[in-house]
Structures are given as structure tokens and as C-alpha cells.
UniProtKB/TrEMBL annotation:
<protein>
    <submittedName>
        <fullName>PRC-barrel domain-containing protein</fullName>
    </submittedName>
</protein>
<feature type="domain" description="PRC-barrel">
    <location>
        <begin position="25"/>
        <end position="95"/>
    </location>
</feature>
<dbReference type="Pfam" id="PF05239">
    <property type="entry name" value="PRC"/>
</dbReference>
<feature type="region of interest" description="Disordered">
    <location>
        <begin position="1"/>
        <end position="32"/>
    </location>
</feature>
<dbReference type="InterPro" id="IPR011033">
    <property type="entry name" value="PRC_barrel-like_sf"/>
</dbReference>
<dbReference type="GO" id="GO:0019684">
    <property type="term" value="P:photosynthesis, light reaction"/>
</dbReference>
<dbReference type="GO" id="GO:0030077">
    <property type="term" value="C:plasma membrane light-harvesting complex"/>
</dbReference>
<dbReference type="InterPro" id="IPR027275">
    <property type="entry name" value="PRC-brl_dom"/>
</dbReference>
<dbReference type="InterPro" id="IPR014747">
    <property type="entry name" value="Bac_photo_RC_H_C"/>
</dbReference>
Length: 140
């Protein structure tokens, strides 16, 4: 069985696109793991060019004024709650620290998406069983 072709993922910050409702733009919000530990801030959103849906959040941590920051991608499915200044995910700090290495050159590689999704325990968003998360219904 063939799967549909995945649209190219683009960093929202590298496009002219915007979030329709500004309060739903989660960039620059703090990210906390399932234990409440601070992981950093959301620095960008990776959006599927063809479906215009957020597929990953890019978390930046450490560094100073954007220099020396560590970055990692987290599937949007990992988000468990969103408030005005915070996003919580269902993963731990340790799990993030062992995640596949961030490589901005591989952002558009389907194998890269699959390995990140697999690492965090999620199926591919291009699979037949996939269902997009019910944002904003998981807000608290």
C-alpha cells in the first residue's frame, strides 16, 4: 500500500505565513516536560507546506541571545496542554536529551521525520491511521 506524499516541512519563521489567531501562536512560550521541568522555549514551528498544519515544535534551550542554543524537534502530538505562557509535553528532559541530533539540513527529509516520530513513540503523520491532535481542545 502506498502512502500519500508528505508535504515539505517549512519553519514558519522562514515563510511569510502567520498563525490565523495570534493567541494560538505558541512560539516563545516556555516548554515544560511531564514532570514540570523547564526545557526551553519554542523557537519555531515546522509546518507541512501542503496541509498547512504544524507537525513539530522546535525547542531551543541554553545559549545566550540565540547563540550556542541547543535545538530539538518535538512532534506536535507530544503536547498535552497549552496556557498563555507555557506548553507542556508528555516526554521527560532525559528523553529529549537523548533524542536524534538536530540537523537543520535534514528538516525536509521524510526519513528524518519518521525517525523523530518513532523515537518519541508516534506513528507517521502520513500514515492511514493518523489523526491530527485536537488543538485547542487540550487546553487547560
Amino acid at each position: 500500500m502506498q502512502t500519500p506524499e508528505t508535504g515539505k516541512l517549512l519553519k514558519l519563521g522562514d515563510t511569510d505565513e502567520t498563525i490565523a489567531t495570534p493567541e494560538e501562536d505558541i512560539r516563545n512560550r516556555h516548554v515544560k516536560d511531564r514532570d514540570g521541568e523547564d526545557l526551553g522555549k519554542i523557537s519555531n514551528l515546522l509546518v507541512d507546506e501542503s496541509e498547512r498544519k504544524v507537525r513539530f515544535i522546535e525547542i531551543a534551550s541554553g545559549g545566550f541571545l540565540g547563540i550556542g542554543q541547543d535545538k530539538t524537534f518535538i512532534p506536535v502530538e507530544a503536547i498535552t496542554s497549552i496556557t498563555g505562557d507555557e506548553v507542556r509535553i508528555d516526554q521527560t528532559r532525559e528523553r529529549l536529551s537523548n533524542a536524534p541530533a538536530y540537523d537543520p539540513e535534514l528538516v525536509r527529509e521524510r526519513d528524518t521525520y519518521g525517525s523523530i516520530l518513532d523515537y518519541y513513540g508516534y506513528g507517521p503523520f502520513w500514515g492511514p491511521e493518523y489523526r491530527y491532535p485536537d488543538y485547542p481542545n487540550y487546553r487547560y
